[in-house]
Amino acid sequence: MRFLVTVILMLITNLPLANPAKAAMPETVFYQPVETDRSITPSQWQQIWRNSADHGVKTVIVQWTSHGGNDFGGTEGWLATTLRLARENGLALIIGLHMDPDYYARLSEIDTAGTQPYLENQLGLSLHQADVIRNKWHLDAKGWYLPLELDDLNFQQKTRRDIIDQQLRDLAGHLDAPLHVSSFSGGKLTPDAYAKWLVSLRKSGIHVWAQDGTGTQTLPPIARQAYLEALPCDIGIVLEAFKQTSKPNRKFSAIPATPDPSYSQCHPVSVFELRYLPWGALLRQP
């Protein structure tokens, strides 16, 4: 009997332990390219993507591939190269399009009448960027991500929401893969009105990701919970894996933080973003 107990203990001791980080990691991760990432070598990127796959990541949402006048080197640039490496490591890509660095400033400057021509111009640039990615970068996209984020401050007026909604539907109709957008709440709409807005987009076939706000902490926890709990299960939740350290209206800075999965419930879940994850530490170097 003593021998049997000893054998059982030996077997239990040698069982492989579950890795909590791997078990908790959502299958979708955001990556936000910045120009300093060009210093990462292809072999280092290879390791980053391999570690991502090893931790259960299956899809990478690339925040943007064009930022103002910066296309990150174009067809043979460092961003295009590393995204090809991601594909070689079995990761699917939801590829970000064009981002105007002055997007939020422009929205605050223009009146409602100016909203439509401005957005038409920006979404036209994104549609062009999709063509560049497909035909010049030669990358397959599981989906397309529009980096012009939706919020209930700049789109507090229903007229403005109607304009962006129609523009997004038009853009989605011209793309060859599903359109993804993200949103966040600053507490300007009620939780119910905010949820109805996102649901109307989802019903149009647009994939919507709502940021959980734990990293920016724009809203107190009880308010964040109210907004996220109002969302139906087909709205995705972005778990923020950072804690913002910069002051409002200053250049953004943050440190890594453990994502809060309590808000995810039944929703599709993603994490923002790669550089704040343990195996993305190289991306945090200045």
**What structural category characterises the helix and strand content?**
alpha/beta
Supply the CATH architecture.
Alpha-Beta Barrel
The tally of domains stands at: 1
Radius of gyration: 21 Å
Taking strands numbered 1, 2, ... along the chain, how are they ordered across the largest sheet? 1-2-4-6-8-9-10-13
Overall average residue pLDDT: 91
Please bin the fraction of helical residues: 25-40%
Structure description:
- The chain is an alpha/beta fold and 286 residues long.
- It has a single domain (22-284), classed as TIM Barrel, CATH 3.20.20.80.
- It has 9 helices and 13 strands.
- It has helices at residues 2-13, 20-24, 42-54, 78-88, 103-109, 112-135, 158-173, 191-203, 221-229, and strands at residues 28-31, 59-62, 66-67, 92-96, 98-99, 143-145, 150-151, 179-184, 207-211, 236-240, 242-244, 254-256, 269-272.
- The strands form 3 sheets. Strands 1-2-4-6-8-9-10-13 form an 8-stranded parallel barrel.
- β7 (150-151), α7 (158-173) and β8 (179-184) form a beta-alpha-beta unit.
- α3 (42-54) packs parallel to α4 (78-88) and α8 packs parallel to α9.
- The chain starts with a helix and ends in a 14-residue tail after the last strand.
